[in-house]
Amino acid sequence: MNVQSNEARCTSCHAGYGWKDKDFDFSDQTKVDCLVCHEQTGTYKKFPTGAGNPVSKPTIFKGNKKEYLPPEWNKVAQSVSRPSRQNCGTCHFFGGGGDGVKHGDLDSSLFKPNKQLDVHMGTDGQNFDCTRCHSTTLHNIAGRVYTTPASEHRKSLVQDDLAHKITCESCHTARPHDDHAKMNDHTDKVACQSCHIPEFARVNPTKMSWDWSTAGKKKDGKPYAQKGPLGRPVYDTKKGNFVWEKNVKPQYFWFNGAMEHLTVKDAIDPSQTVALNRPLGSSQDANARIFPFKVHMGVQPYDKVNKNMVIPHLFPKGKDDTTAYWKKYDWEKAIEFGMAYADLNYSGEYDFIKTSYVFPITHMVAPKDNVVACSECHIKEDSRLANLAGFYMPRRDDAGIIDTLGWLLVLGSLIGVLVHGIGRVFTTVRTRGEE
């Protein structure tokens, strides 16, 4: 739920050495782990609770009973090259603590996908590495840049070959279809991903719901985990209940490339689902497009009195740490420690609240024969865009005056055709009579 007070566990997937507490020095360049992104042996492993460090001697991690070995430094260092899909995927495919937990469109199926799963990354197709699109200048990586919305500069590489490749239009331009194709008229309001990613998690399941309020249950006095029909855990004593799904249809929102995030200091309304983040944009925003998202639902603790989210201390800081939730399964002590660690006020009273978090969907681009059909959006019942309001969409919406004028135009045209036809008949008959 939060890195603070849990650094040693969370930072095993972050590119740094020794980020074990809140005093980590981000200005110290010796703490940057270059190898995790650049080594090509595949043997360089971070220890899951080592604050970003590999082990110095063979060590077994209790969580998965796996033995981690010290790196062969000479081989690892001599293998350095441009980041491969393996480098990127080792962290990004397993974000949030497991395969496909977070993103929905990023999981281990993309290590070696076919083009039916992703036309760009498919090994039997274009076989792009991540760096083909996520180009980099001085380690500034092009991609999902929330502080500088991606849609503000919609230049293609045809217009500017130094532009960051951060939108589909960068390569495909704003008119990617055949000349006179109606789909070209959609690119000013609809992101390419909305039509070309009909579902995500098409091979492996993704976690769609996480209920922390049910955590803490034990069997025979011991923590346990239970797997569901998709082969993924549906309950874990440490983390509660999960819901996993495959072939998930995205939800759609207006998105200008910027995202707003809730902080622990922000007030919340406990009577409603709390949006921990939300995409910015609207139908009136010239830079916004209708964009697909995974919406991850959760149940998390909050401060009942101060009405804000809280930071629980989950991961034990040593054997004698009795405040960590994963040690004693006591929410009250875990929250009290976590909030104090972050120098934040806590009333001492907590409860659980429903939350949501959105992830943009931009990978797993399907082949052109598997795109979203027009009728899936332009339909009155069960439209994919049913939750979007504030604009008129043909066939989905009733637009009173517009519909009336349209039918009057059709009726007027029909009457005109009939009058013209009758007139031609009488004219023909009279002409023949005069002859």
How do you describe this structure in short?
Strand 13 and strand 14 form a beta hairpin.
Which key features would you list for this structure?
single chain, 435 residues, alpha+beta, 9-stranded mixed sheet, two-stranded antiparallel sheet, 9 helices, 15 strands, globular
The radius of gyration is 28 Å
Alpha carbon gap, first and last residue: 94 Å
The proportion of residues forming helix, as a percent range, comes to 10-25%
Q: What class would the helix/strand composition place it in?
A: alpha+beta
Strand percentage lies at 15-25%
Helix count from the secondary structure assignment: 9
Q: How many runs of DSSP E, i.e. beta strands?
A: 15
Chain-averaged pLDDT: 90
Major sheet, described briefly?
9 strands, mixed
Task: Sketch the topology as an H/E string, one letter per element.
Answer: HHEEHHEEHHEEEEEEEEEEHHEH
The best one-word shape is globular
Low-confidence stretches: none
